[in-house]
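Quiz preparation item.
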């Protein structure tokens, strides 16, 4: 049932997990446009590698659908208990497909409900993580990665790579290889079934994304099989297959709430930025940008004046690197950051909406760029993102840029923008390594008994920095910031949780109302 047209839309969100970036961030972006987001109860959602309750999810969806306009749903959560559990659980395919069928049932009951779905092609993890992958990956991860690359090379090049494939297969226990590839085949079958739902009109749009991918591997092989099926079904106008994962709820939210195509002027930090290579993606930065723009319902503009917003992308000089600074591949003569910052200042002064995506390094903003942009009015940015993979960053920044035009709640926008600066820069680029140095040889996969100490150190280090950043860049907005106690999302340092709430200050509340109800950027 659709609400009256003068009411803001209601969005149901079934996320891939419960991290702030996948659960709270989409809700923040929706709130800044006036839309309402409803999410399943906590007991239905996954907790790290513990699966969510798929029966509860089904009942919740059936109960809530008649009061919503839009559904954004992670297929892995709905059918396998979560994005990480989907790599670990042994649920048989027939049960998985029964769970998927609820989408057709919901669409039959509520034909006006727009369903935006996404699935994540199973990654081949770069690290031997026994928690996000099956437990045996901690011992056999290197051999499984070698098999993955050899299999795909053989599939593409034939007999020339046959010997390498046999060597890789012989290096693995047969039962482990069969279990690992069987999990992939089940999840691929889920995505093929989702393509059928797209073809049948159950889904309005479908994104199938590659998490932590590389040019060669089983994920690339799966991608080609899905693309071939998409060719047969002729569903490409409503389908995107590209590198990404955690940011897709934001991208689909932008597509759903702002269905008209937005034109985007892309400004790179170096003249050759579009050709920069990424670590966790299978294509250069320029092609990655185009893929993420399309997923969010955007296209390239020919000039800044024709654009709905400017996407400013800080690319590495040649190739991403994990450790800062990297003078050989990132900080090279192939880009000039001061000139990039000058262009950002000019764009803001010209009145363009600017969303900044920093992909020079994964897992946090570039520290040098952060220093250089302190002279800019950061609170005037339409968006900011610098977290995890390049795809995560780009999808988030693009969603910010597109939805800024719909913005009516300046406190919600400031909260979402500031939260990304806190997480992506203050934490990921600076405080995380400082917390790690205070611990005793912490595991990257599980802090164990050191978690409590880590969270205490985190609060001590980052809380005054959060308050100082707000005071420097956001204090003139007529808003107040409430800062909660920082903690870790999971028993590892990779993801922090920073409870923040921006609201109109008491002085502003009792003064004259702000002029107009239109966009705030």
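Solution:
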């Amino acid at each position: 049932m659709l609400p009256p047209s003068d009411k803001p839309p209601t969005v149901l969100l079934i996320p891939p997990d419960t991290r702030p970036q996948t659960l709270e961030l989409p809700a923040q972006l929706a709130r800044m446009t006036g839309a309402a987001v409803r999410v399943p109860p906590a007991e239905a959602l996954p907790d790290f590698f513990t699966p969510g309750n798929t029966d509860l999810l089904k009942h919740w969806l059936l109960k809530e659908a008649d009061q919503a306009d839009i559904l954004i749903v992670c297929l892995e959560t709905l059918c396998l208990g979560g994005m990480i559990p989907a790599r670990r659980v042994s649920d048989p395919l027939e049960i998985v497909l029964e769970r998927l069928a609820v989408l057709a049932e919901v669409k039959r009951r509520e034909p006006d409900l727009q369903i935006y779905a996404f699935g994540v092609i199973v990654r081949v993890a770069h690290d031997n993580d026994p928690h996000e992958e099956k437990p045996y990956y901690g011992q056999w991860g290197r051999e499984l990665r070698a098999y993955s690359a050899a299999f795909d090379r053989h599939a593409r090049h034939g007999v020339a790579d046959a010997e390498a494939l046999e060597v890789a297969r012989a290096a693995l226990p047969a039962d482990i290889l069969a279990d690992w590839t069987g999990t992939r085949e089940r999840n691929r079958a889920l995505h093929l079934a989702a393509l059928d739902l797209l073809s049948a009109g159950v889904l309005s749009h479908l994104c199938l994304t590659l998490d932590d991918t590389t040019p060669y591997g089983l994920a690339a092989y799966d991608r080609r099989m899905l693309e071939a099926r998409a060719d047969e079904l002729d569903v490409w106008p409503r389908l995107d297959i590209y590198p990404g994962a955690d940011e897709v709820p934001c991208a689909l939210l932008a597509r759903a709430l702002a269905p008209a195509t937005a034109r985007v002027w892309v400004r790179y930090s170096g003249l050759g930025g579009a050709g920069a290579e990424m670590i966790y993606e299978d294509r250069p930065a320029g092609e990655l940008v185009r893929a993420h723009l399309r997923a969010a319902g955007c296209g390239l503009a020919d000039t800044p004046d024709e654009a709905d917003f400017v996407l400013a992308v800080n690319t590495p000089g040649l190739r991403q690197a994990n450790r800062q600074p990297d003078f050989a591949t990132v900080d090279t003569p192939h880009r000039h950051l001061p000139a990039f910052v000058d262009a950002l200042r000019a764009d803001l002064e010209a009145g363009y909406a600017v969303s900044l995506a920093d992909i020079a390094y994964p897992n946090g903003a570039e520290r040098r760029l952060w220093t250089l942009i302190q002279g800019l009015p950061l609170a005037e940015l339409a968006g900011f993102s610098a977290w995890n993979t390049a795809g995560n960053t780009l999808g988030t920044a693009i969603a910010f840029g597109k939805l800024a035009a719909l913005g009516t709640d300046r406190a919600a926008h400031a909260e979402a923008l500031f939260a990304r600066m806190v997480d992506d820069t203050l934490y990921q680029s600076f405080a995380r390594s400082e917390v790690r140095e205070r611990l005793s040889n912490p595991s990257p996969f599980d802090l164990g008994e050191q978690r409590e100490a880590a969270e205490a150190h985190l609060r001590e280090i980052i809380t005054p920095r959060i308050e100082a950043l707000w005071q420097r860049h956001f204090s003139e907005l007529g808003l107040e910031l409430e800062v909660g106690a920082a903690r870790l999302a999971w028993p590892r340092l990779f993801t922090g949780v920073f409870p923040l709430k921006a609201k109109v200050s008491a002085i502003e509340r009792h003064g004259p109302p702000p002029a107009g109800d239109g966009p705030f950027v």
